[in-house]
Amino acid sequence: MAFSHYAHLVPLLKYPTEALPQQTAWAIKAFEEDHAEAAGHLKAFADMLPWGASVAGDACPLQDQEEIYTRSFEIQAITTLDLGYILFGDEYKRAEVLVNLNREHEQNGVDCGRELSDHLSNILALLSCSEDRDMLGDLVAMILAPAMRMMVGEFTPARIEAKEAVYRRHHKTLIDKDGVRSGMYGHVLNAVYCLLQKDFNFAEEEVIKDFSADFLSSISRELEIESEEEKPQGQFEPPVTNMPGTGSGCGSH
Questions:
Q1: What is the DSSP letter of 119?
Q2: Has residue 230 been placed in a domain?
């Protein structure tokens, strides 16, 4: 099967288990000979795995990795793995994508588990087993490649720090995190993107929209709503005014 090698990446993008170090090692071995660049990204990911060097004191390595995964893709996420949401948000187009993907997954025996059909791990599983080259070509061109360009871009240090800055403005404390490992899943996403470029030979194009700006705005709105909901009902808060000689303490948005 022409694209069966994508199956090695599927477990790396699911919620981590104790098998993650071994799964990563198998993926590196599978790509070393013919896909050196992708293997290099996976080696960088493997070097950051906390197994044997816990980053959270008494916490076990698996718990460390679970927190990194959650911070990367779920709660207070750097990005999301739901590609339809990345491209279309909550618009009706995403619903159409989910319906079509559900049909393809069912026809190809892909078990989506607890994730939706547009989750990257499920799409890679479909890529690894489907024989419909035309469908896969359209899937990569219209969904996978443009979404991956956005996702990879979100894992640059500057983008990660921008999101952390948003959270710091709304919360006095943040979940402790390891600054070095906070972007480690970017290496897995880069590996996926390298393989897609090689296998489907698509041209680099500009990202279709500034996902980071939209995502940061969404985070800010959600945190503001959360803050309002936590206030006691009927509590009066006087407007904030700046006394002479003092700063506002926040920037314009």
A1: B
A2: no
Q: Report the number of distinct structural domains present in the chain.
A: 1
Question: End-to-end CA distance of the chain, in Å?
Answer: 50
Q: What is the pTM of this model?
A: 0.75
Two tokens at 98? Answer: 């989910």
Alpha helices in the chain (DSSP H): 20-31, 36-48, 61-73, 83-88, 92-107, 120-129, 133-139, 145-154, 157-170, 185-200, 211-230
What's the alpha-carbon Rg for the chain, to the nearest Å? 20
What is the domain extent for residue 172? 4-225
124 in a structural domain: yes
Give residue-wise pLDDT tens across range 173-183: 444 455 567 78
Report residue 23 as tokens: 């799964």
CB atoms under 10 Å from CB of 218, counted, come to 11
